[in-house]
Amino acid sequence: MEYHQACNTSQIPNCYDAGHNQSNQSSHQLFQEDLYATVSPLLFVFRWLAFCVGIPIQLLVAIVILKSRRLHNPRNAFCLGNICCCFTILVMSAYEYLLLIYRPNCPLWCQIYGVLVGSPYTCLLVTLLLAIIDRWFAISAPIKHRKYITVFRVTVCLITSWILVLFMNTSSYWLGMNEISVSCTVNSNIMKWVSLSHLALVSLIVVAQVAVYIRTRNYLRFNAQLLSMRYKHHKMRTNSTLVPDEYFVHLPDKTICRLELEASVTLVCGVTSLCVSALPLASTFLALIVCQIDMNHLLKCNHATLVAFIPYMRDLLLLHVVIGPILYITRSREFSKALRQTLPFIRFSRLFSQHGQRVAPSLVQRF
């Protein structure tokens, strides 16, 4: 999708051609107006592939979680919330292209698009942040977590957070600062602040994931030391001169190393997929804001070039929407077992969980 200046909704191509013939100062003014979206063949194919791959995977995860009682816990409730957000993002991307292709005469459809654009991905980031905070609480205070955190409370928390996100993203409309467009355009100022909120949320998620990783590693090492102390104490009490089996002596250390490796892989996968998909768009709008503040034109910014990058950066968000559920399927042994019970004809257990038969499930599976 490409964004153009929307100075007159009936003559948008002419406005775009005129905008290309202006100087950098006029490009600065272009960014002040609404941005009109047009269909790009390359991005259309990318969205179509993301839709065809993402929707079946998300429906599969949602059906398995809902049908399997063993997955009815707060951790998977957050996962189901992530799936709902991912599904909404893909539906919103398809709805956006339908508006551009069919151009409905009723302005209500364009107003719905203008109100909702940007909110689904913000809801996804908020859900991810809440899920990571929940994992930190589960590791730090497992008894309190088991007592106070329930599926119902998680559901209420997620729905409340989504309503607040929609309320905040549309605040400029009901405060009278902006008017809802009837021409299927995107208000650049709203997209600018939504992208900045994405940047802040991504930063918080990365910090939270690192905190959970450190907490998990400390917990695993504490357990290893505790097991070693118990073994030495038992050996002194029995006064045994027998040499124990080497496997049992080194099993805790090997297990801890394996679990720390899994925690590291989880951290790297989560942070990398998030940064690759979300940071480019936020960085583009941050650069536009910096150029907008530069009144003396010291940076010599080309606003038209930055605006041209926006559609490609936006569609990178769909990459995160598709990769996230795939990572959950491939790394969760609990989900793999539930999937084999729900869909018996699926035979990929050895591919994802063969290594889990000898080692107890790790704490990082909860992430």
TrEMBL record:
GO terms for cellular component: plasma membrane. The chain crosses the membrane at residues 45-66, 78-100, 112-133, 154-175, 195-214, 265-289, 309-330. It is found in: Cell membrane. The keyword Transmembrane applies. It is a multi-pass membrane protein. The keyword Transmembrane helix applies. GO terms for molecular function: G protein-coupled receptor activity. Residues 57-328 form the G-protein coupled receptors family 1 profile domain. Keywords: Cell membrane, G-protein coupled receptor, Membrane, Receptor, Transducer, Transmembrane, Transmembrane helix. It comes from the Eukaryota. PANTHER family: G-PROTEIN COUPLED RECEPTORS FAMILY 1 PROFILE DOMAIN-CONTAINING PROTEIN, HISTAMINE RECEPTOR-RELATED G-PROTEIN COUPLED RECEPTOR. This is G-protein coupled receptors family 1 profile domain-containing protein.
